[in-house]
Design brief:
With 356 residues, the protein is an alpha/beta fold. It has two domains: 126 residues, translation initiation factor eif-2b, domain 1 (Four Helix Bundle (Hemerythrin (Met), subunit A)), CATH 1.20.120.420; 219 residues, Translation initiation factor eif-2b, domain 2 (Rossmann fold). Helix 6 links the parallel strand 6 and strand 7. The structure holds 5-S-methyl-1-O-phosphono-5-thio-D-ribulose.
Length: 356
């Protein structure tokens, strides 16, 4: 997709380094950062210079390649793989990508291993781009159906950033929106701000603006009243881990939005590539939920009148805060899963039929 009219992907390898768009600086600064070592990749994932399930999967894949480039010793690669998987616990894509890399590299002669690792990391990223494009083509049908009935702008609510910045390209939740817009269907997006890291305001709104898609940022608690007023035609969110049962783990606050959608008969869709499906865990309470530093709540970053980036404290100094990063939306609140293979019900039977 485009930034200031120029096409980008979120990650690529060039001149022996991995390049990323530093998302901690958006929307105020656009800067490209170089990852030279596996530690750089781990750090980028941990501090969210890259974030979003598919993108951290792609970064972990390149992280393995960087580890090999640095020190092609099996013990070092093994330790790096473990550290990459641990760098953020909730999105399953990290483990999925690292396992795929390790499987691909097992038994490969050491003089070939770097080339094969770099090819596989690129393949993982290329595949994600293709899958996200297919998610868009599949999800477009739902938006088109609503438009054909309504004959007016389709209002779509989304939470967090499940846009192209969270993937390699296209996004998951935003891909059907980009496809609808390109087809000339009038769309408008309600963008949940998504406290505390404000991925909605800082990233979703930013990337939609760059593609000229009408959007309005709302505080996280506003979706309910908009649904009661009939101002939301559908919700589309992404996923960090979708269980084979159809339960969906995504950014904190997704569950509450699904409850409001259910109460107001607003269709609630989850868009995901198959790399986000966890076929092992059956009980959503077993999903590791990341708890991040409470400073992400108590402090806020932005630019002042002199265009300088500043971080300020907004809580009482003595207050404690708790920062859970994800929650789970039970399958019963999900209208459908939009995947690269098509749209299916959020259930074990439907997911198995589609993917197994
Ligand atoms: O903490 P983040 O920004 O990595 O969380 C991202 C999300 O929750 C996204 O909605 C999810 O990864 C879907 S990505 C296409």
């Amino acid at each position: 997709m485009k930034i200031q009219g120029k096409k980008y992907r979120t990650i690529w390898y060039e001149g022996n380094v991995v390049k990323i768009i530093d998302q901690t600086k958006l929307p105020h600064r656009f800067s490209i950062k170089e990852l030279k070592t596996v530690k750089d990749a781990i750090n980028a994932i941990e501090i969210m210079e890259v974030r979003g399930a598919p993108l951290i999967g792609g970064t972990a894949a390149y992280g393995i390649a960087l580890a090999i480039q640095e020190n092609n010793d099996p013990e070092f690669i093994k330790k790096s793989a473990e550290e990459l998987i641990q760098s953020r616990p909730t999105a399953i894509n990290l483990k999925w990508a690292v396992d795929r890399m390790i499987k691909k590299l097992s038994g490969v002669k050491s003089d070939k291993v770097l080339d094969i690792a770099l090819n596989e990391a690129k393949e993982i990223c290329d595949e994600d781009e293709k899958f996200c494009e297919s998610i868009g083509i599949n999800g477009l049908k739902i938006i088109e159906e609503i438009y054909n009935k309504k004959k007016d702008t389709v209002n779509i609510l989304t939470h967090c950033n499940a846009g192209w910045l969270a993937t390699i390209n296209w996004g998951t939740a935003t891909s059907p929106i980009y496809h609808a817009y390109k087809k000339g269907i009038p769309v408008h997006v309600w963008v949940d701000e998504t406290r505390p890291r404000n991925q909605g305001a800082n990233l979703t709104s930013y990337e939609l603006n760059e593609e000229n898609i009408p959007n309005t940022i709302i505080a996280d608690n506003t979706g309910g009243i908009l649904m009661q007023r009939g101002d939301v035609d559908m919700c589309i969110v992404g996923a960090d881990r979708t269980l084979s049962t159809g339960d969906v783990c995504n950014k904190i606050g997704t569950y509450l939005k699904a409850l409001a959608a259910h109460d107001n008969n607003v269709p609630f869709y989850v868009a995901l590539p198959s790399s986000t499906i966890d076929w092992e865990i059956k009980n959503f309470k077993d999903i590791p939920i990341e708890e991040r530093n409470s400073e992400e709540l108590s402090h806020i970053e932005g630019i002042d009148e002199d265009n300088k980036l500043k971080k300020i404290l907004i809580y009482p100094k003595k207050s404690k805060a708790m920062n859970l990063a994800f929650d789970v939306t039970p399958a019963k609140y999900v209208t459908g899963l939009i995947t690269e293979k098509g749209i299916c019900e959020a259930s074990s039977a439907a997911l198995s039929k589609m993917f197994k």
